[in-house]
Design a protein that fits this description.
The complex is a heterodimer of chains A (about 280) and B (about 325).
Chain A lengths: L1 H24 L1 H4 L31 H36 L4 H14 L3 H12 L3 H27 L3 H8 L4 H37 L11 H8 L11 H25 L8
Helix pairs in contact in A: 1-10, 3-4, 3-6, 3-8, 4-6, 5-6, 6-8, 8-9, 8-10, 9-10
Chain B lengths: L1 H28 L4 H9 L7 H14 L6 H13 L13 H36 L4 H15 L2 H15 L11 H31 L2 H8 L4 H11 L1 H25 L5 H10 L3 H29 L1 H14 L1
Helix pairs in contact in B: 1-13, 5-6, 5-8, 5-11, 5-13, 6-8, 7-8, 7-11, 8-11, 11-12, 11-13, 12-13, 13-14
Classes of the chains: A mainly alpha (about 280), B mainly alpha (about 325).
Chain lengths: ~280, ~325
């Protein structure tokens, strides 16, 4: 019963993600119009056969902009995720390896501080002091999100250290670096990947929320977040204007959530995993 | 028991100290000179006499203690903080703590209402889903959770606002914090936080129902209701942890929701201050939010000791095992 359910959400998630990736990265072939071409005669049009998701305030085709803009959004979220994972794993494994040392204490205090920093607050501080740009936004997200990965990998390392294989490696004279690379790193990969699928979803949502508030990439670039910020003022008269980016963000995040849920059930159908 | 709480309090202080350090460092690393920003506000930047301008600059710098070295500046700043002096807004010239105090009640009201809605939804649907695991209800709840968790917060807010206020016309659009305006933003914020809580309640309740005491309860002929009530008491701890952890997310979400519903809370005020480059306000906002989150965490930690006797006994049990 559980197995079948797991495969269902995994497959549904993969199909949705595949659809998004193909349509976004095949945008130059699939998009019906030029994403940056403005047309003053067709401003703020409702969805029609010509413009399936309508046009924005400059008369640009929203579907084409969404498809093209997805590349920026997906690639930058992915890069942010990779940076997040690398920092998180590094800190987590080192802290776990030298558990109880001063280094571990300092790192874990830092983790506590960042956990009590709502990411939105930090993003606002950075935006106020350093200006708004997509790069700053991603930097903020990376500097807050690695914490989750560090905590997860540290707890896995602490558990792995109680096993005989760890003691054996120590007795055989393996250096700390080798132990971390060969014994500890491979163990953390599985749970970290599951966490990463969920995190990528929430990462995209965070980027969207911050961009919506005008703290992300600025309007001329076609990007889902900036399209949202751009359309915000016209939402109540022309609700269709936010439909395109919203729909794509929703499907992408739902795909990652489904895959994460599927992977989690697949790995351990009856017990919960502490993520 | 007291030692445990004192230890937690000490940790909280260290966390807060670290936070002041991070915020101070960020402000100092920022490219713009605060004095220049202040002067540009008053329009005196247009002074053509550059010598007079430089003089004014040095004067202001001394006035704000910016001519001291960085360590002294930090110590002065923290000393002011300990006296609840967060500096004054560049834009309005009023003390930041006064501006924040006016708006904090609106944010707290929104946050508490959202937390309540979130907890009720989480406990109810989480329990329902766990008790009917694998049945239709369970699938519907889980699917709804995924849908809700994948919806951007501002879209949910805008959709609810346009439906309730524009279509139905039963919601008053203004920028006042009143009880009649509270329910919609609180509901939105609660709905955003609910899926995570539902998931945790469901997972921990399922684990708990697999325990032998549940089986023995049933074997003795206890009613379903009674057994579930016992199981629910035991999952209070992970659920409380979840609620505490979700608090930081709630504050993040509150910024978006306050901005959409023009709810006059601290988040909206800080957001408005970004455009004005009013950095003392942002700095004060960040400090207050971090203090709020760490305070709530401390409170939850203290509550643990009261909720669950196992936490209280742990050190002693450990000591006995070691002996």
């Amino acid at each position: 019963m559980h197995r079948r359910k797991a495969t269902f959400s995994l497959i549904a998630g993969c199909v949705l993600l595949g659809l998004i990736v193909v349509s976004v990265f095949g945008a130059s072939m699939l998009a019906p119009h030029d994403p940056v071409k403005q047309s003053t005669l067709e401003r703020l049009e409702k969805p029609s056969l010509e413009h399936p998701l309508g046009t924005d305030r400059f008369g640009r085709d929203i579907l084409s902009r969404t498809l093209h803009g997805g590349q920026n959004t997906l690639i930058s979220s992915f890069i942010a995720l990779i940076a997040t994972i690398v920092i998180g794993l590094l800190v987590g494994i080192v802290a776990g390896m030298y558990h109880g040392s001063l280094l571990d204490t300092i790192l874990m205090r830092l983790v506590d501080v960042l956990l009590s920093f709502p990411f939105m607050v930090l993003a606002m501080v950075i935006a106020a002091l350093f200006g708004t740009s997509l790069f700053h936004l991603l930097a903020v997200i990376v500097s807050v999100c690695w914490v989750t990965f560090a905590r997860l990998s540290r707890s896995i390392v602490l558990q792995a250290k109680t096993e005989t294989s760890f003691a054996a490696a120590k007795v055989l004279g393996a250096s700390d670096l080798t132990i971390m690379r060969k014994e500890l790193l491979p163990r953390t990969i599985g749970p970290v990947l599951i966490l990463a699928t969920f995190e990528l979803g929430s990462l995209i949502l965070s980027i969207a929320a911050l961009s919506f508030l005008g703290l992300g990439s600025q309007p001329p670039t076609p990007e889902w977040g900036s399209m949202l910020a751009d359309g915000r003022d016209h939402f109540f008269q022309f609700p269709h204007i936010l439909l395109g980016p919203t729909l794509f963000i929703f499907i992408t995040v739902a795909a990652f959530n489904l895959i994460g849920e599927g992977l989690r059930n697949q790995l351990d159908p009856y017990e919960k995993i502490e993520l | 028991m007291c030692r445990l709480i004192i230890k937690k309090m000490l940790q909280t202080f260290i966390t807060l100290f670290f936070a002041t350090f991070v915020i101070f460092l960020l402000v100092r690393l920022a490219p713009g000179d605060p004095v220049n920003i202040m002067l540009s506000r008053t329009g005196e930047i247009a002074m053509s006499d550059s010598q007079a301008y430089d003089h004014k600059l040095a004067e202001l710098r001394a006035q704000h203690g910016l001519d001291q070295n960085i360590a002294e500046q930090y110590v002065t700043w923290v000393r002011h903080l300990l006296q609840f002096d967060l500096g004054s807004s560049i834009h309005t010239g009023r003390p930041v703590q006064a501006e924040m105090a006016e708006r904090l009640s609106a944010t707290c009201l929104l946050g508490i209402a959202a937390l309540l809605i979130q907890s009720v939804l989480g406990l109810f649907f989480g329990t329902l889903s766990a008790l009917r695991a694998g049945k239709l209800i369970d699938h519907i709840v889980r699917l709804t959770c995924i849908v809700l968790a994948s919806t951007p917060a501002f879209v949910l807010g805008l959709a609810l606002l346009s439906f309730v206020a524009v279509r139905l016309g039963v919601y008053e659009i203004s920028s006042e914090a009143s009880w009649s305006r509270l329910w919609l933003p609180a509901l939105t914020l609660g709905l955003i936080g609910a899926p995570q809580l539902i998931r945790v309640v469901r997972a921990s309740l399922l684990t708990e129902l697999g325990q032998t005491y549940v089986l023995s309860g049933f074997a003795r002929g206890l009613s379903n209701q009674l057994v579930v009530r016992h199981a629910l008491r035991n999952i209070l701890l992970p659920v409380a942890t979840m609620v505490a952890l979700s608090f930081a997310g709630l504050i993040s979400g509150a910024v978006v929701i306050e901005s959409i519903f023009s709810w006059p809370g601290v988040g909206k005020h800080a957001l408005d201050s970004i455009l004005l480059k009013d950095y003392p306000v942002i700095q004060g906002y960040a400090l207050i939010m971090v203090a709020l989150v760490t305070g709530i965490n401390l409170l939850i930690d203290a509550l643990y000791v009261l909720i669950d006797p196992r936490v209280r006994l742990k050190p002693r049990v450990r000591r006995e095992l070691r002996a």
